[in-house]
Amino acid sequence: MSDRIRIAIQFHPQHGAWSDLRAAVVRAEELGVDIVYNWDHFFPLSGPADGEHFECWTMLGAFAEITERVDIGALVTCNSYRNPDLLADMARTVDHISKGRLILGIGAGWFDRDYEEYGYEFGTAGSRLAALADALPRINARWKKLNPPPTRQIPILIGGGGERKTLRIAAEHAQVWHGFGDANQLRHKNGVLDRWCYEIGRDPKEIERSVGANLRDPSAGDDLVAAGAQQITLGVDGRTKWDVSPAVDWLAWRDSRG
To answer: What ranges make up the beta strands (E) of 14-155?
Structure first.
């Protein structure tokens, strides 16, 4: 794994027009961003609850066509919303459209409104995590059966910080783990993930560590890297027409590190 820090932008697909979001994704690639993400929800997570919002995976197909270099993915797909074999096929298809640039970000799900309004069983945090653990082997098995197969071993990103279950699942299956919080929280969670890796016999260095940060505060970067961050994700919203211009300071910080 490269030592180079990667900068990602998560485009919150809410409160704006697709034409503006499309232009912002193209601009992010032009600026030199490494990864572009969206998210997998059916309603806004902030601002007006019934505001404009777009679906995740159809959008990822469009991301694949309008970009040429950046990795793309969801931060993160909700495991509950799609049959795991279907999700594997969808991911394989976007992998081909993008010529091998997809990251399969996935998590157990949490936003109860999505479940209630779209008719999914919400269950409990434990049942959703159990379903995620069951789904990941099915996804990998389906990739081996598909014709054509994926262009590469699609990297799996697992999001979440639960220390007893989520981080163990990440230790078993992830090539990228995405966590939340400041440098101290990240350092602690990284240590827990490392311990799970040692327990199951996996090299912790095989898992890239990702964390969110403030788009307008690159001064946090050095502390996050010292805590183990290898990928830093910045969020942008439709209420600013997905303005990615503040990311230039983060990109300059990344490049200054060599």
So the answer is: 35-38, 71-74, 77-78, 102-107
Amino acid letter, 37: Y
Q: How confident is the model at residue 220 (pLDDT cuts 50, 70, 90)?
A: very high
Task: Please answer whether residues 188 and 130 qualify as being in contact, where contact means their C-beta atoms are separated by less than 8 angstroms.
Answer: no
Residue ranges of alpha helices (H) inside 78-208 are 84-97, 112-118, 125-145, 166-173, 183-200
Strands 208-213 and 176-179: parallel
Q: Which residues are 157's β-sheet partners? A: 105, 176
Which of 164, 94, 90 is closest to 133 using CA atoms?
Answer: 164
Regarding pTM above 0.70, the answer is: yes
Q: How far apart are CA 129 and CA 79, in angstroms?
A: 9
Q: Among all chains, which residue has been given the structure tokens 């078993």?
A: 172
Q: State the pLDDT confidence band at 35, using cuts at 50, 70 and 90.
A: very high
* Integer Cα distance of 212 and 231 in angstroms: 9
Q: Which of 29, 36, 30 is closest to 12 using CA atoms?
A: 36
Q: Please give the Cα distance from 29 to 250 (Å, whole number).
A: 14
Dump pLDDT digits (tens) for 170-200: 999 999 999 999 999 999 999 999 999 999 9
The answer to whether residues 205 and 198 touch, using CB atoms and an 8 Å cutoff, is no
Cβ contact 199:207 at 8 Å: no
| Dihedral sign (CA 8, 24, 43, 62) | negative
Q: Which amino acid is at 197?
A: C
Amino acid making up residue 55 = E
Q: What angle, rounded to 10 degrees, do the helices at 18-31 and 247-256 form?
A: 20
List residues bridging with 104 in a β-sheet: 156
Tell me if 73 sits within 8 A of 105, measured CB to CB: yes
Q: Which residue has the tokens 């990667």?
A: 6
